[in-house]
Amino acid sequence: MSAPQANLPTPLFGYRKYWAECFGVAPFLPTSREEMDRLGWDSCDVIIVTGDAYVDHPSFGMAVIGRVLEAQGFRVGIISQPDWTTKTDFQRLGKPNLFWGVAAGNMDSMINRYTADHKVRKDDAYTPGNIGGKRPDRAVTVYAQRCREAFKGVPVIIGSIEASLRRIAHYDYWSNTVKRSVLLDSKADMLLFGNAERAIVELTHRLAAGERIDTIQDIRGTAFVRKSLPPGWLEIDSTEVDQPGVVDPIPNPYQDTSELRDGQGNKGPCATGDTAQKVPEIEERAVQIMDLRQVDRAQKRAFKSKSYIRLPAWEQVRNDPVLYAHASRILHLETNPGNAKPLVQRHGNREVWLNPPPIPLTTEEMDWVFEQPYARGPHPSYGDAKIPAWEMIRFSVNIMRGCFGGCTFCSITEHEGRIIQSRSEDSIIREVEAIRDKTKGFTGVISDLGGPTANMWRLSCKSKAIEENCKRLSCVHPGICVNLDTDQTPLIHLYRRARNLPGVKKVLIASGLRYDLAVETPEYVKELVTHHVGGYLKIAPEHTEEGPLAKMMKPGMGTYDRFKVLFDKYSKEAGKEQYLIPYFIAGHPGTSDEDMMNLALWLKRNGFRADQVQAFYPSPMAMATAMYHSGSNPLQRISRQRGEQVQTAKGHIARRLHKAFLRYHDPDNWPLLREALKKMGRADLIGSGRHQLIPRTQPQGWQPKTPSRNRAGAAARARPGKILTQHTGLPPRDKGDGRRKKSGSPRRGK
C-alpha cells in the first residue's frame, strides 16, 4: 500500500548513515566481548536480546533487525538465549549506547513451551540440539526486567510476535485470565508491533540524534504508556456496547458493495462477490463519536487526522467478556494502515497508546532488507549442533509477507498485516543463486518459495484508493473480493525461472497453499502440480462443516473439491502419482460434537487417518481467542441483547472428544466415541459396516495405554503441525533434498 504523497515515509535506505559505519560489516553480529574486540568496537549502540539461537539469516527476526540497523551505520550486538536467572549474562557486551532491543524470538515463548493441553514440551526447534527450556516463560517480560537490572537508565524497546500480540489487554490461555498490556508488565519504554524495520530505523536515528525516548510518540507501529492524553485530539468513545441514542452508520465490512465506486470509477471497497452472506446492509457504528455540531468545518478536518478511539479499560475487559469481544473487534477493524486510528486503553491511572500500524514496505525496501550481508547460517559458537528451525528453512526462500486471508485462529494477520509485501523476482532469483553457491549441503533442491501463504505473492487490491479505505477483515471470505487481483501468472513465471537455473534440480513449494485463490488461475495449479509437488501437497480446509468454517473465515468444501479435481487432472497428465493432504483443527470455537462427528465421517469416506491432531490453541489477540474466552462472535457487531453466541469445547474431556473424532481409527479412542455417539443418538454409527465409524468391540488383546504413554501421546498429538496419512498407500514424505524417508508420513510445514 502507498500512503498519500505528503505522508510517504522515508525509505529504509534513505537515511544518512550513523558515524559508526566506518567499522564496516561484521561477519556475524558480535555475541561476546572477544568478538567486539576483533571488530574494534569499544561498545554497542544497540544490543538485541532474543530467546532464539542466533542464526544470521533473513528468516530470523534478530538477524533482520540487526543487519538493518548495521546498514544504517549502528553497532549491533546479540545476546542469544541468555541465563535469565541473573543479570550477569545481560552484561557481557557492556552497556548499550542507545537502547536494548528485547524479543522472545520467532515464536511466542508460551506457545513454544506448552502444548494446547498445557503440557510442557521437551524440545525447542530454535535451540541448538532441539533442547527445551532454554528460554523463560513470558520471555519478553523477563528479559526486559533483567536488562533494566543490568544497566539502569538505558531505554528498553520490546518487540517480536510475543510483544506484538500482547500490545493491549489480552486473554491469556495459560492462566485463564485477561492480562494487561505487556508494556506495563515489562516496564518497557516502547513496544514495536508488526514487522518493525521502519519503526526501529526511525527510532534509532532519532535517539542517536539526542531525542529522549519519552518524547518520541509519533512513530507508526509503536505503543507506549502515557499518564495524560495530548490536548487538541478528538476522543471516539468505544467503551460500551448497546448504547442508547442515535449512532452514525458505517458500511458493514461483509456487505456486497460491488456497485459502489471510488473517484476513479473503480468498484467499492468491500465487495464480496456472488457468495456474500446475508447480513444487514448497514450496521451500527461500534464506537460513539462526540457531538461535532459545535465545531466549524476547519476544525472537523483537523479532527479527522487527530482523533483516537478509546477502548474499554483493562479493568472492564478483565471482568466483562462481552466488552472483551467488543475491544477485540474494534482493534481488528483498525488495522488498515491507510485508515486506522490510534487506540487508547486505560490501565489503572495510565493510558496505553497504540499508534496506527506501520506503512508496509515497498518492493524495493523488501529487496533491500532481504539482501543485507547475512552469513546465512548459525553462529559459529554452536559448532555442529543442529538447530531444527534452521535446518527446515536453509534451502528455502521467503518471497513475501502478510496475509489477507484473515483466518481467525491465526496470528499472521495481527502481526504482519493484511497487505502483501512482495520481493521482486530478480531479488528472489539472486537468493536462490546464493543458496546454490554458498549454502553447505545444497543438493540442487530448493525446499520452498513461499512465506505466510505460498500463492499470495504480488496479489493486491486493484485500487489503492479502495484499499486505503477498506475495513474488511478478509479479502477472501465469505467470497473473494471483486477488487482483489487474483492473477497468479507472475508466480508461474517465477517458478519457471527458478527451476531453470543452472544447478537447480527441483523447486518445491512447502508453504501453506490458499487453494481458493489457486483455482482462480488453473494454469498456476498445472505448473504447481506438474513441477513443484514432492509426492504430496498439503492444504488446510481445517473443517468440513459450515458452522466452524464461518467462525474460522475459511472457504467451504466445495472449493476444496474444485481444487482436488484440478490436482488429480494435472497429476495424471504429468504421469505422476501424487496425493492431496488436507489438514484439520479440533476444538475450534463454533464447533459442535456433531460437527466433529461429520468431519470424522468425511475422513473415513475419503480414506484418511490422522496420525497427529492439532487442537485449537487460543493465542493472544486472535479473533478466535476472543470467541473462546467471551462466547461472543466479534466478526459481527457485539450486542448483549442480539449478539451471536459461540459454542466452544472447553475442558479436558470436551477437547479430548473432539480430537478423538479426528482419530476415529485409534482403538484407544473407541470407548470414548461409543459413549459420545450413544449420547448424541447416533449409535447407528457403531459397528463394522462400511458406513459406520467405529467397531462395537475392542481388538482382541487390546490394552489401554498407561498414563505415561497417554501423556506422551497427547503431547505429541498437540504439537504444531498435523499429519494425515491415507491408508490406501501414501508414499513417504520427500525430505526436501530429493531423498525419501525410509518411513514416516507427510507433515504440515507451517
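That was protein one. Protein two is written in the same sequence-then-structure order:
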Amino acid sequence: MSTAARSLFSYRPYWARRFGTAPVLPMSRAEMDRLGWDSCDVVLVTGDAYVDHPSFGMAVIGRVLEAQGFRVGIIAQPDWTSVEPFRELGRPNLFFGVTAGNMDSMVNRYTADRKIRSDDAYTPGGKGGSRPDRSVLAYAQRCRQAWPEVPLILGGIEASLRRVAHYDYWSDKVRRSVLLDAKADLLVYGNGERQIVEIANRLAAGETPEQITDVRGTAFMLAEPRPQWTEIDSRDIDRPGPLTPPPDPYAAQTPATCAQTAPAGGETQVVLAPRVRPDRQRSVVRMPAYEALRDDPVLYAHASRVLHLETNPGNARALVQRHGARDLWLNPPPLPLTTRELDRVFELPYTRLPHPAYGAERIPAYEMIRFSVNIMRGCFGGCTFCSITEHEGRIIQSRSEDSIVREIEAIRDSTPGFTGVISDVGGPTANMYRLACKSPKIEAACRRPSCVYPGICSNLNTDHTPLVRLYRRVRELPGIKKVLVASGLRYDLAVKSPEYVKELVTHHVGGYLKIAPEHTEPGPLAKMMKPGMGAYDEFKQLFDKFSRQAGKEQYLIPYFIAAHPGTTDEDMMNLALWLKRNGFRADQVQTFLPSPMSTATAMYFSGHNPLRRIRRDGETLPVPRGLKVRRLHKAFLRYHDADNWPLLRTALKRMGRADLIGNGKRHLVPTWQPAGSGGAAKKAPRGRPFRTQHTGLPTLPGKRRQAARNGDGRRR
C-alpha cells in the first residue's frame, strides 16, 4: 500500500465541470433542471439536514466532488419507509454515497441509559425521529431497491466506527461489519476526501468497485485470498515493536530453518538461515473471525488491541477478518491532508447556510457552529472513550493562518446575524494546532496509542507559539469584537506554554472555560488514558493567576464521566467528595456510553484491558454494567440532588462509609429528606437548616451562573 499521496486536486476534471459550480447542491429534480442537469453523477444520502457548511460532512464531500467536475445531488433525511425519495434525483451515473450524518444514529437518538432522546440537533426545528435507527443500513437498503445496479459506498462516522466486527451497546451483542449488513460495495472510513475522490475518478474511468481494492481508508469483501500477500496471525502482534523477533540460537533446527554444509574435516556445520522480514506493504494481519470473537470477550479485547496498533498511516498494515465464507479487508488508514489541501477543502464555495428548502426553520447544530471556525483535524490524545482518533486519526492536520483569516472575514461579511463575535476558533482539541512529532521518521514508525499518556512524549513539539500568533491576528481583524475558544482544551499541553494560557485567559474566555479531567482517581484515569489531577491543579493555578492579572472573574467548569470501565463505587465516592470540597454542582452529567470500536467499549464488553497484552489469566477490570450501578455512579456526580440522597445513603452504608451521612460540611449527604423529593419526607432539624454548599460562582449574573453550574453533558 503506497505511503505517498496523490494531491487531492491534481486529477483531470470530469467532463461535467462545464456546468459550473452550483449555488447549492440540488435536493430536487426542479433544482437539477435549473442547473441544466439531466442526471447526477453522484447522489449523497445523509441522515442530517443539508447545511452547506464545512462543519457538515456531506457538504464537504459534495463540494470536494463538485470541484473534481462531478454533478452531486443530496438526499437529506429521506422517508426511509418508502423507496420513492431515493428515486427523486434519478439514477446516479457513478454511485450512491450513504452516511448517517455527523453523528452515529444510535448515539444521536438514545441516551447512555438507552432512553430515546426527544430532540435531534441536526434536524430542522430540532425534532427527533427524522432518521431511522442504524441509518446507514436503512438508507443502503432503499438505495439498492431504487437502483440495484448502482454502486453503493458507505461513509461517515457511523460506518467508520462499525467497519469491523464491533460490540453494539444497544443490542448488547457483537455485530458484523456494517459493510456486510448494508450489502454495500465499499466502505470509506476516516476523513473521506482522498478516498472518495480516487474512487469517483476510477469509477468514471470505467473501473468496477470489485477492482478498487488498493485505496487507503477503505474496506471491502473478498471470497478468495489475495495472491502475493503475506498473512500474519494477529496473535504474533501483542506489543509495539519489530514484527519478527531474532531467531533463537537454542531452538531446534529443521531443514526449513537451517542449511547443512560439510567442511573439509568432514564435520557437519549447522548454519542458521536468516529470517526474512515480510514486506509491510504486502503484509496483512488476520484478526480473529467475527464468529470467534462474537462469543469470546477475551478474543474481542485482543482484536481491539491489534486494531488500535495498526492505526498509524506511516506503518499500519492491512487487516483481514473472516465473516462467514468471506473475508473483510481493511486497508491502512488514509494519509493526512497537507495544509494546502486542507485550505482548499475549507475554502470551497460553501454558502455556509442551510439549504433554502428549510426556509426559516432553525437547525440547532447549525446555530451552534455558524460563527465558529475549525482550524485543525485529528487528535493524538488517544482517550479510550473517545472516537475522534478512530475516525480522524492521531496526526494533526492544520490549516494555514491566511485560510483561517479568510474564513473569519467571510463569516463577518456574509453570515446573517453576525454581531462581531466568533464563537469558537478550535477543533477536536482547541490547542493542538500545528503540534506534531519533532521527527517525521519517528512519527511514521511510532505505534503508541497516545502522544500524551502516560506522560507527554519527549518527541512531541508542544510549542503553542503558532496558536498564540493566530489568536492575536484574528482578534485584530476589522469588525471582529471578540474571538472565543469553546472547543475542549488539553490542559496538560497548555501548561507547557504559560504564554498561551495567559493569551487564552486574557482575551478568549467568556466568563468560564469548560475542561475535561473526566475523573480524579488514578484507577479510572489510567483506563481513560487521561492525566492525573496534578495537571489540572497546575492549569487552575495559571488560569486563576492570569484571570486576576486581567482583572476578570472567570471560572473553570470541569467535566467528569460516570460509570467508565475500571471505575469502582469508591472511585465515584471520592470524586463526589472532591466535587463538594471544590464547590462544583453539575446538573447535567455524562454517563459512559460504549460507542462502537473504542478501546473503552472493548473494556466494557470484555472486562479486560486492551491497553496491555491480553491474556486469559491477565488483568480484569471492574465494569459498571447494570442499570443499578450506572445510576449510582451518576448519583455520586449529582450528590447535591435531593432525589439522589436515598440511593447514596444506602450505598454509603453498604460501603462502610456511613460517616459521610450527616448535616455538617464534611458530610456528602444529609440525614434528612426534603418533602417531595425521593424517599420518605423528613423535616430538617429545628434550628439547623441544611445549607447548600458554596458553588464558587458567587458574582456571576444569574443566567451565566446557572449555565456555569449546569454545563452541557452531551459530547459529540
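Residues 15-214 form a domain with the Rossmann fold fold (CATH 3.40.50.280). Keep this in mind for the problem set.
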